[in-house]
Each structure stands twice: as structure tokens, then as C-alpha cells.
Design a protein that fits this description.
Elements lengths: L1 E7 L9 H9 L4 E6 L8 H9 L5 E4 L2 H4 L3 H13 L3 E4 L4 E3 L7 H34 L16 H11 L5 H8 L3 H13 L10
Parallel strand pairs: 1-2, 1-3, 3-4
Antiparallel strand pairs: 4-5
Length: 205
């Protein structure tokens, strides 16, 4: 089986994941897992589901190393998993790590780890620039940060589907998907709603 994995940091209404999907299909992916989560997030539910489904001899295809992980620690854990499960990992147009014999080519593994280091460095530099820009804006008197989240500004779509989550008909990932937001955002909405008393929430149609 050939699995493809595509990831964007935000949901499908804010980032187009279809470019990755097209590349994965062109590379031969038979089943594609779509993830909407930050690259260094510890929880990537679709990635976990993909590795759980993968059997010895299967292939995992990813468009770029940063789509797989933005943390060298996580990437090393993935390499170990690829080796333990005897899989083949293909980074399109770049690196192939074939562990179907139970061993990895040392050079390929080293190049993959180096790519992971640069991916983590890139993320750190982006965040550093953002912090610098925010500090500069704050110094000029701009208000920084999002407005405080209250029940009144939680989207009606979430409030409409929240009862299904409470009744056990939807899990966190499913709730996030139907609402078009990330899992992290769902957790924030739930915290606000339940702090306010979930049973008193008005559900807008």
C-alpha cells in the first residue's frame, strides 16, 4: 500500500492543501491522510492514523520534510518508527529512506536528519521575526494579541455541533473538521462554553 500525507498549519478555509494532494497523487499515493495542525505539534491525529494503518513493506509519501515534522526530535522518532515497521519513506523529489529490510541506508538517514534540522531552524526564524514585529508594533502603541474569547464570539457552527460532541457522537477531531477549525481552537471553545455552563448554551441554527 502507498500512503500519502499532507499537512497544513491551519484549516482548509485558510490554507489550500490541494497542491500537496496533487503531488502525492502524481507520485502514486493510493490513500491520502490530510492533517491540519502545526508542524511541531505533539499531537498529529492523522499522521498517527496513517502509521497505525501502515503494514510492513508499505510506502509513505510526503511532499516535503516540514510536512512530516518541524521538530528534529519528532523526525528522529518517525525514522525509528519507519525502521521498526519496515516501511519505505519517500520525500518527493528529494530523499528516500527504505527500511523494508529492517535497516536504513546511513547516508539517506543522515540527509533526512539534516533536512529536519533546517526545517526546525526555519520555523524558529519565522517565530523570531514574528516576535520582533509584534514587539515593534507594541512599542508604537498598537494593541497586540487577539480579543479575549467569550461565549458571545464563539461561531454558531461550533455551538450547533457541540451537543453532538457532548453526547459522544463526535470526537474532538471530527468536531474540528465539521466546524472548519483546528483541534486547538476546539479545545479553547469547549473550555469557554463549559466554564460558562454548557447546559445553558443557546444553540443557533
Amino acid at each position: 500500500m502507498i500512503y500519502g500525507y499532507a499537512r497544513c498549519s491551519t484549516n482548509e478555509t485558510k490554507q489550500d492543501i490541494q497542491r500537496q494532494v496533487r503531488e502525492l497523487k502524481a507520485a502514486g499515493a493510493e490513500e491520502i491522510f490530510l492533517e491540519y495542525e502545526h508542524g511541531d505539534s505533539k499531537i498529529k491525529s492523522q499522521q498517527k492514523a496513517m502509521f497505525d494503518a501502515a503494514k510492513e513493506g508499505d510506502t509513505i509519501i510526503v511532499p516535503e520534510v516540514p510536512r512530516l515534522a518541524r521538530s528534529t526530535k519528532q523526525l528522529c522518532e518517525i525514522i525509528d518508527m519507519i525502521r521498526d515497521k519496515r516501511l519505505r519513506l519517500v520525500i518527493i523529489g528529494s530523499i528516500t529512506l527504505d527500511c523494508r529490510t529492517g535497516h536504513a541506508d546511513p547516508m539517506s538517514e543522515a540527509f533526512l536528519q539534516m533536512a529536519g534540522v533546517f526545517s526546525q531552524l526555519e520555523l524558529a526564524m519565522i517565530r523570531s521575526r514574528v516576535r520582533s514585529g509584534m514587539a515593534n508594533a507594541k512599542a508604537k502603541g498598537a494593541k497586540i494579541g487577539r480579543p479575549r474569547l467569550t461565549k458571545e464570539n464563539i461561531p454558531s457552527k461550533f455551538l450547533r455541533h457541540y451537543p453532538s460532541y457532548k453526547s459522544g457522537n463526535l470526537n474532538i477531531s471530527e468536531l474540528a473538521r465539521v466546524c472548519g477549525v483546528s483541534r486547538g481552537t476546539v479545545y479553547k471553545y469547549i473550555e469557554v462554553v463549559e466554564d460558562d455552563g454548557g447546559s445553558n448554551v443557546r444553540y443557533h441554527k
